[in-house]
Design brief:
GO molecular function (chain B): RNA binding
CATH topology of the largest domain in chain B: Alpha-Beta Plaits
GO cellular component, one term (chain B): cytoplasm
Oligomer: heterodimer
Distance between the termini of chain B: 66 Å
CATH architecture of the largest domain in chain B: 2-Layer Sandwich
Helix content of chain B: 25-40%
Strand content of chain B: 15-25%
Shape of chain A: elongated
Number of strands of chain B: 11
Helix content of chain A: over 70%
CATH class of the largest domain in chain B: Alpha Beta
Radius of gyration of chain A: 15 Å
Number of helices of chain B: 8
Low-confidence stretches of chain B: 3-18
Mean pLDDT of chain A: 87
Number of helices of chain A: 8
Order of helices and strands of chain A: HHHHHHHH
Radius of gyration of chain B: 25 Å
Protein name (chain B): Ribosome assembly factor mrt4
Main location (chain B): cytoplasm
Distance between the termini of chain A: 20 Å
CATH superfamily of the largest domain in chain B: Ribosomal protein L10, N-terminal RNA-binding domain
Largest interface: A-B, 33 and 32 residues
Order of helices and strands of chain B: HEHEHHEHEEEHEEEHEEH
Strand content of chain A: under 5%
Keywords (chain B): Cytoplasm, Nucleus, Ribosome biogenesis
Structural class of chain A: mainly alpha
Number of strands of chain A: 0
């Protein structure tokens, strides 16, 4: 069942097991997955949803914060994340190896965003950093799940 | 009589591309390329960066065509044995398409291709899960590269930090990563913020095919192994 599948993903030594489990078990579709393909698909869908919502949040923030880095995050970094997850989903069934590459790529967006913010003098937004952390974790979790399809 | 909605035609351009169609597109593309170009190279890749790869591919698009994706589909397209290969000797290429690899059909000279691949190297920040190439440790004391607003974020990454008169301070020595060990998400973030790049995206040639010649660039399998494998 989904819970067993999730535990197999979240037990990887380089991952924060609690964080991974908390993220995945909060999404009903991952809990109902019957195999690794369904789980990987659900994780990618969750990641895409989170990326879209994250971009909305950033764009709202752009209106009140005059910080160029936020514009980069919203219009470039998270746009590329969304595109990457859509591509990953489209490739998952027929070409999981390529889907994995797209999922990996998706993790670069939040890191790039974080770096841009770090380069902004005297500005730090914890909400954005938390978003980036979660999106980065989701990318890695997605790659772990897709790996199960490639083996 | 009203027109039946059940009997309406659906144009092919609006139909959803299915797995078989997608594979056939790739297979047909490879067959077309095999007719159009005079040479085929198999290459392997490490630390793939899709955007960088696209730039490299675009650089060569006037003279070359790249295929990267399902090894099995590429193998089928080329032919897996002498009896079904699409051009004489291409089954040898097919046998070497494994792991993280792709192929490029080209009309560039051998020397030019070798130079381009040899020169191609892109450094980037390492991703979570990849192995650290060196140990990175931070000594107790002020961390002047970080602003005070970042202190909560750094603490969330597991760093033992505090603010001391507005300066982020490490209260004890901290090991970000160990050489050879997989990077945690936290470590990869810290390395990014520190500007430390540990990943080298590179492409390595494995073999070259032309109508009258086959060449291996790697040690290991010899031609007899490729013939009978």
């Amino acid at each position: 069942n989904g819970s067993d599948l999730i535990s197999q993903i979240c037990k990887e030594p380089s991952i924060n097991q609690k964080e991974c489990t908390d993220i995945l078990t909060a999404y009903p579709r991952t809990m109902h997955a019957n195999n690794f393909f369904e789980l990987a698909e659900a994780i990618l869908q969750l990641s895409l949803y989170k990326a879209i919502e994250g971009q909305k949040f950033l764009r709202t923030l752009m209106k009140t914060e005059n910080v160029p880095a936020i514009a980069q995050c919203a219009n470039s970094d998270y746009e590329s994340v969304i595109t990457a997850y859509k591509s990953a989903l489209s490739k998952l069934k027929d070409d999981p190896k390529t889907a994995k590459h797209y999922a990996i790529d998706a993790g670069d967006g939040p890191v790039s965003c974080e770096a841009a913010l770090a380069d902004t003098p005297v500005y730090f937004n914890f909400e954005i950093s938390n978003l980036n952390i979660q999106m980065g974790s989701l990318s890695y979790i997605a790659t772990l799940a897709i790996d199960k399809l490639i083996i | 009589m009203p027109k039946s909605k059940r009997n309406r035609q659906v144009t092919l351009s609006k139909t959803k591309k299915k797995g078989r169609d997608h594979k056939e597109t790739i297979v047909n593309g490879i067959k077309d390329a095999a007719e159009k170009y005079g040479h085929v190279y198999v290459f392997s890749f490490e630390n793939m960066r899709n955007q960088k790869f696209k730039e490299f591919r675009d650089q060569l698009k006037s003279s070359s065509r790249f295929f990267l994706g399902s090894n099995k589909v590429m193998q089928v397209a080329l032919g897996r044995s002498a009896s079904d290969e699409i051009r004489p000797g291409l089954h040898k290429v097919s046998k070497l398409l494994r792991g993280d690899s792709g192929m490029v059909f080209t009309n560039l000279s051998k020397e030019e291709v070798e130079r381009l691949f040899k020169e191609f190297e892109e450094y980037d920040f390492a991703r979570t899960g990849s192995n650290a190439t060196e140990k990175v440790d931070l000594k107790e004391g002020p961390l002047e590269q970080f602003t005070h607003e970042m202190e909560p974020f750094l603490r969330k990454q597991g760093m033992p930090v505090r603010l001391n008169k507005g300066v982020v301070e490490l209260v004890s020595d901290f090991v970000v990563c160990e050489e050879g060990k997989p990077l945690s998400p936290e470590a990869s973030r810290i390395l990014r913020l520190m500007g430390i790049k540990m990943a080298t995206f590179r492409l390595s040639l494995i073999c070259r095919w032309s109508p009258d010649e086959f060449e291996l660039y790697i040690d290991g399998p010899d031609e007899s192994d490729i013939e009978c494998s």
